[in-house]
Amino acid sequence: MSESAAELPISEARESLADVVSRAHYAGRITYVTRRGQRLAAIVPVELAEAIERAEDAADVAAAREALDRIDAGDTPIALAELRSELGR
């Protein structure tokens, strides 16, 4: 069972980092670290972070497979320079 999420100013998080990390690990608590009320970062259970990474990896693989399928179907790949230009980079 996980605790509900909490918000903690960065000054307090700095003073109680070990406790915040322990609550993430043992109780499943997500703690949002804030500055002037704005969320800056989150301390999350490692299982959650790893699940997010796996989901992102799966989405990347699916996008790559879709792009390769479009190329196999006859679409012309976009040159890297053109893509950068479209993205404004």
What can you tell me about this protein's structure?
The protein folds into 2 domains: 39 residues, 3-Layer(aba) Sandwich (YefM-like fold); 41 residues, no CATH class. It is built from 4 helices and 3 strands. A 3-stranded mixed beta sheet has the order 1-2-3. It starts with 5 loop residues before the first strand and ends with a helix. The mean pLDDT is 93.
Write the SSE topology:
Elements: E1 6-9, H1 10-15, H2 17-27, E2 31-35, E3 38-43, H3 46-72, H4 80-87
Parallel strand pairs: 1-2
Antiparallel strand pairs: 2-3
Describe what is shown at a glance:
With 89 residues, this protein is of the alpha+beta class. It is built from 4 helices and 3 strands.
N-to-C span: 45 Å
Q: Output the number of helix runs.
A: 4
Low-confidence stretches: none
Can you give the mean pLDDT? 93
Encode the helix/strand succession as letters.
EHHEEHH
Helix content: 55-70%
Kindly state the number of beta strands: 3
Question: What kind of sheet is the major sheet?
Answer: 3 strands, mixed
Could you say which structural class the secondary elements and strand pairing correspond to?
A: alpha+beta
Taken as a percent bin, the fraction of beta residues is 15-25%
Q: Give the overall form.
A: elongated
Could you say how many structural domains there are in total? 2
Strand arrangement, largest sheet?
1-2-3
Radius of gyration: 20 Å
